Amino acid sequence: MSGSVLFDAPGPRTIARHRAYTVVSILAIVALLALAVYKLWVEDQLEYDKWEPFVTPRYLSALLLDGVVTTLSMAGAAVLGAVGLGLALGLGKLSDHRPVRWVSFVVVEFFRAVPVLLLMILIFFSWGITRGESGAYWSVVGALALYNGAVLAEIFRAGMNAVPQGQPEAAYALGMRKSQVVWIVQLPQAIKIMVPAIISQCVVALKDTSLGYAVAAPGLTQVGEAIYQQFQNQVPTILVIALLYIAMNTVLTVVATWIQAKYVGDTNPIDLTRAGNMDGGQNTGGAG
């Protein structure tokens, strides 16, 4: 019923037109792929010696073991730091103490505004440059944690505010302190709302590890650079690394979809369209 209110069901002509659009789009994509393959062939980028590193066990080990594992470890460490920082800053922005709110606001807005690449370079040249490869590694992790933590702070704050006001009011009526209300009542419900956004930010952190090339950080980009400098096969190397990033992000997206379906469900666990009615009913009952 609600679907028919939002839009009319397509008729036979509309369905036929959409099918034609689909066919044209598929043909255009196939043509672009064919053109790309042709250009690679013309430029001698399909020769075996340029793709040989990606079928050689020694280089595959460097790509899969060293590059992928290091990239995933950087992203994992950055996500853990970002979640902790984001939770602290998000709760800080909801604090009853004005100095805490203002400090949290300034920190969040600053690190959200600074490009993550510049943040990596700043941390590296001010701290990590004298520490070798580990300095570059932690410069990437620190920059990603600060940037994504600032973004997650807004997600946590929005998720907490999305919990209907009747929930904390009922907890306060039972005599709970604010810390108990936050950790026992609001945060568990808010996390269910925030799961998709948090996982989406994890994908962003994983992709942004590729920016570590600017500070010579270990990972897929460094391995790729070493390979194409030796074999002069920039295009095949970039394609392979891109496919690896796509594969990792696809797996992460599948995991995110599974987590959302298992712990959140198909719809929002807190129906915000009925939040006003729920609050109104509780407030009316309390007033009566």
What descriptive keywords fit this protein?
single chain; 288 residues; mainly alpha; MetI-like fold; 12 helices; 80% helix; disordered C terminus
What does this entry look like structurally?
Mean pLDDT is 83; it is low at 267-288. The protein is built from 12 helices and no strands. With 288 residues, it is mainly α. It has a single domain (66-269), classed as MetI-like (MetI-like fold, Orthogonal Bundle). The chain has helices spanning 2-6, 12-42, 48-51, 57-93, 98-113, 116-126, 132-162, 166-173, 178-208, 220-231, 234-264, 275-287.
Give the number of domains.
Answer: 1
Q: Helical region count? A: 12
CATH class equals: Mainly Alpha
Backbone structural class: mainly alpha
Question: Which H/E pattern describes the elements?
Answer: HHHHHHHHHHHH
Rounded mean pLDDT score:
83
Determine the CATH topology.
Answer: MetI-like fold
How many DSSP E strands? 0
Query: CATH superfamily, please?
Result: MetI-like
